[in-house]
Design brief:
Blueprint lengths: L22 E3 L4 E3 L1 H8 L8 E3 L22 E3 L5 E2 L1 H5 L9 E3 H111 L3 H5 L5 H5 L19 H8 L26 E12 L5 E8 L2 E6 L4 E5 L5 E6 L9 E3 L5 E5 L4 E6 L2 E7 L3 E8 L5 E7 L5 E7 L2 E6 L16 E5 L5 E5 L4 E5 L5 E5 L12 E6 L5 E5 L4 E5 L5 E5 L7 E6 L5 E5 L4 E8 L1
Antiparallel strand pairs: 1-2, 1-3, 4-5, 4-6, 7-30, 8-9, 9-10, 10-11, 12-13, 13-14, 14-15, 16-17, 17-18, 18-19, 20-21, 21-22, 22-23, 24-25, 25-26, 26-27, 28-29, 29-30
Length: 554
């Protein structure tokens, strides 16, 4: 079948555009119905090549000979590279020693070569360029983060310089204060000496007054003047004020003190194309998936399951503040309660075993480790819903604004916002704004996959937030509308999503092509999903409160 025609298309005659095609002109490449054949070949019967439609493009059209225009050339001289017809060979005008090649053989060899080129472009070269484009998109997406980091480093240095300058200025101020104290001490000491002399002179005046008023001869005869002593004035104390001598600010010295920003440099590094080796570890889907065992959680409205290893299968429901941890055999290992007793909207687990959960009421994401609970994300105007811990240790959070008109995906590193994914390249929302579950996961190729129940779609963007595809399940054979809820991915980059109302799990390939259903395991309203390191699938049954562990790969 012609690859240009879809399986559901019906080829029509190119002339009348009504009748179903039955024949094909291999010379003109025109679709024809039987009644239109005569009209088509009426201009020159000999040049047209009419074949059944199923055999279209199967007749080789040879070039016309330049010396014998009515003859097709079926040979090519390997030495002269010219085309030759049978008359050219019979006329003996061409060198008989030259090697002749049949055009149909050359044609088939070239066709094979073209097919190989086509396959190489499709399967090797295009993916290589897609990887390069994705790498550049990621660099562009992270450029603000990288430059903010650079600015933070300089701001940190600025703070250090300010701190050192402040310390030095404070030291100089301290020296000024110390000099002031010494200065005051010197002046006060000299003042005290002067006041003592003043007191002594006052006493002397008093004594002289008494002598003057006395008529006794002895005191007056023995009087000795002290004026000569008093006339020797005390030395003048000159205290030089300390001075601040600012160092001239030299631009070069200042620049060397602050440091510098290296200029932007661009180099071209040669890329070497290496053909990707076929994946020899592909695990095919089982024809009939099987339930390995069932974990009875005892939780009502069971909605979420996430696993770290065989000993830590975490679950939670819509009506309880409890988060329960089981092993794969269904044995309860421990129970954790939310900090404020609110029902967790979603849970996820870091690689170090730390548990995170989202609290709709407080607009907060909490982290629980070693029994200690801390706030890691607190929002204003938005409410966190579903969570995913990425392979790099980041946290992806889906969230709604307060009036339920917008939703988005936000990436955090710890408590720091790193990326926001909300609109496509045309400025249109990627996700529905109404309040419906939007479970999220990351694929092995770092695609971000969201099960958007409100839109009835699986929305997949790459690491940079660029839309890759939207799967809406329009080709489904199921009766009920496609309403995806839980979502997870496996080691083969397949995407698995819960089809809640059709009681099954859909499996898509990495590009959004539907592969299969898991609908033979008696699933009852499947909700949250997760896959362990061995690609065992865990499925929450919301109403029954059970988690089924299913083997679906060979």
């Amino acid at each position: 079948m012609d690859p240009h025609y879809d399986a559901q298309d019906i080829a029509r005659c190119d002339l009348c555009e009504i009748a179903i095609v039955q024949s094909y002109c291999d010379f003109c490449h025109v679709n024809l119905c039987k009644p239109c054949i005569g009209e088509h070949i009426s201009d020159d019967y000999t040049k047209h090549i009419i074949v059944p439609f199923q055999q279209r493009r199967s007749t080789l059209i040879y070039p016309k000979c330049e010396k014998h225009p009515n003859k097709p050339c079926e040979f090519q001289c390997k030495d002269c590279t010219i085309f030759l017809c049978s008359h050219c060979l019979a006329s003996k005008q061409h060198n008989k020693e030259h090697e002749l090649l049949k055009l149909d053989e050359i044609f088939n060899e070239k066709k094979d070569h073209i097919q190989k080129d086509k396959e190489e472009i499709k399967k090797q070269l295009l993916p290589a360029y897609e990887d390069i484009a994705s790498e550049l998109e990621n660099q562009i997406a992270n450029i603000d983060v990288d430059y903010r980091k650079l600015t933070r480093e300089m701001s940190k240095h600025r703070e250090e310089l300010h701190r050192e300058i402040e310390n030095e200025i404070n030291q100089r101020e301290k020296e000024i204060d110390e000099n002031k104290v010494k200065h005051l001490s010197i002046l006060k000491k000299h003042l005290e000496e002067i006041k003592q002399l003043q007191s002594l002179m006052q006493e002397t005046l008093h004594d002289l007054n008494e002598i003057m008023d006395s008529n006794e001869t002895t005191p007056i005869i023995h009087y000795s003047s002290k004026n000569q002593e008093f006339s020797k004035l005390p030395p003048k104390v000159i205290v030089s004020m300390p001075r601040f001598i600012p160092k001239p600010i030299e631009k070069e010295e200042l620049c060397s003190l602050i440091g510098k920003v290296t200029p932007l440099s661009t180099t071209l590094e040669e890329r070497v194309f290496t053909a990707k080796k076929p994946n020899t570890s592909v695990r095919e889907l089982l024809d009939e998936p099987e339930v390995l065992n069932t974990i009875k959680t005892g939780l009502e409205e069971l909605v979420k399951v996430t696993c770290l290893n065989e000993e830590e299968i975490w679950t939670t429901g819509k009506t309880t503040a409890e988060i329960k941890c089981f092993n794969t055999q269904g044995v309860l290992k421990k129970t954790t309660k939310t900090k404020l007793g609110n029902v967790p909207i979603d849970i996820a687990v870091y690689s170090d075993g730390a548990l995170v959960y989202s609290d709709w009421v407080t607009r907060t994401v909490y982290k629980v480790k070693n029994g200690q609970t801390e706030e890691i994300i607190s929002l204003q105007g938005w409410r966190p819903t579903n969570l995913c811990v990425t392979s790099s240790g980041d946290l992806l959070v889906t969230m709604f604004n307060d009036d339920f008109t917008q939703s988005k995906v936000v990436r955090y590193s710890g408590s720091k916002l790193m990326q926001t994914i909300q609109f496509d390249d045309d400025g249109q929302p990627l996700y529905s704004g109404n309040y419906n579950t939007k479970y999220i996961t990351e694929n092995r190729n770092l695609d971000i996959c969201v099960a958007d129940m409100g839109a009835g779609a699986v929305v997949v963007v790459n690491q940079a937030g660029k839309l890759r595809f939207i799967y809406t399940g329009t080709t489904s054979t199921k009766k009920e509308p496609f309403k995806p809820i839980g979502i997870t991915t496996d080691s083969q980059n397949r995407i698995l999503t819960s089809d809640f109302y059709n009681h099954c799990v859909r499996i898509l390939d990495v590009d959004g092509l539907f592969l299969s259903y898991i609908d033979n395991c008696d699933l009852n309203y499947p909700y949250g999903l997760c896959v362990d390191n061995d690609d065992s699938l865990f499925v929450c049954e919301q109403v029954k409160g059970n988690v089924k562990r299913i083997r679906y790969l060979k």
